[in-house]
Design brief:
The protein is about 25% helix and about 35% strand. The strands form three sheets. A six-stranded mixed sheet has the order 7-8-9-3-10-11, sandwiched between helices. By secondary structure, it is an alpha+beta fold. It has helices spanning about 40-50, 100-105, 115-125, 140-150, 170-185, 195-205, 220-225, 265-270, and strands at about 5-10, 15-25, 30-35, 55-60, 65-70, 75, 85, 155-160, 190-195, 205-210, 215-220, 235-245, 250-255, 260-265, 280-285, 285-290. The protein folds into two domains: about 5-225, P-loop containing nucleotide triphosphate hydrolases (Rossmann fold); about 230-290, RNA polymerase II/Efflux pump adaptor protein, barrel-sandwich hybrid domain (OB fold (Dihydrolipoamide Acetyltransferase, E2P)), CATH 2.40.50.
Length: about 300
């Protein structure tokens, strides 16, 4: 039996011919990435999992708890699911200072774990803005505050809806590394929606692709993203999203417009590359060259 099970359908009254079907399972500590085109049903899936919307039928089970069961007429509201949900627009209260924002999600603010609170605000580098209001801080800071707020209540499941969409590349990679570090240390089960495959490759151990309200593909990032190989003669431009050392060589993960590829490079080339850099890859007669800062 899996740690988290979702077998649900959703039909809207104004769209009777459109049936959204979601069937998947997760193990404890999985970090699942969801991607697909706009309107495919990614955010809807998060809302159904959280309890903000109710499925038409099916079952959602988290460990020993049943969150939704249409046959047994069980429907737990979001307040009883112990979920952390970080929305795309952050949902911070404009009249609350940052410290009170972070504490807001706690049911009993008198029993706060002060050590964990200090750990989060230091890890997310937000101690110096605790007395600020949301309009006084940057978008990247607001996003870190929103995630720290949800983590403080130590949810069973953390849902992140496009958490990097409003960030520039430097802030994006910094927040990705931060989430990876938190996940490695505390092993939360996390579901993240992103339209950037490179985000999911950097973070997730499982991904699912949704199209028109259906899960079309599921598997590891390598299984889903790396189906295409470089031909013997090719010149392409893309963004370096990760470098991974393997024995005496490196693997470069490069994001193209609609795909991600892996390229083997030597250490001499690798030492001049950093994630986020735009590069041109040239293959000719099975020899590879990389031109940095191509645009």
């Amino acid at each position: 039996m899996s740690y988290f099970e979702v077998y649900i359908e959703k039909v809207f009254n104004n769209q009777p011919n459109q049936i959204f079907v979601y069937n998947f399972t997760l193990e404890k500590g999985d970090l699942l990435g969801i991607f697909g085109n706009s309107g495919a049903g990614k955010t809807l899936l998060l809302r159904l999992i959280s309890g903000l919307d109710a499925p038409t039928k099916g079952i959602i089970k988290f460990h020993d708890d049943i969150w939704f069961d249409s046959n047994k007429k069980i429907y737990l509201p979001i307040q009883k699911r112990n979920i952390g949900f970080v929305f795309q627009n952050y949902n911070l209260f404009p009249h609350l200072k940052i410290e009170k924002q972070i504490l807001f999600s706690l049911k009993n603010k008198k029993n706060i774990d002060q050590n964990y609170f200090n750990y989060l605000i230091d890890k997310f580098e937000i101690r110096n803005i605790l007395n600020f209001y949301p309009h006084q801080i940057s978008g990247g800071q607001r996003q870190r505050v929103a995630i720290a707020q949800m983590l403080l209540k130590q949810p069973k499941l953390l849902l992140l809806d496009e958490p990097f969409s409003a960030l520039d590349s430097n802030l994006r990679y910094k927040l990705i590394d931060l989430i990876k570090a938190i996940h490695k240390e505390f092993k939360q089960t996390i579901i993240i929606v992103s339209h950037e495959k490179s985000d999911l490759l950097s973070l997730c151990n499982k991904v699912i692709y949704i199209e028109k309200g259906r899960i079309i593909e599921s598997g590891s990032p390598n299984e889903i993203f790396f189906k295409n190989k470089l031909s013997a003669k090719l010149a392409i431009t893309g963004k370096l999203i990760r470098l991974e050392k393997k024995d005496v060589f490196f693997i470069a993960y490069i994001a193209l417009e609609n795909d991600i590829i892996q390229v083997i490079i030597n250490p001499e080339k690798a030492k001049n590359l950093t994630p986020g850099q735009h590069i041109k890859i040239i293959t000719k007669a099975f020899q590879l060259d990389i031109l940095e800062d191509s645009y």
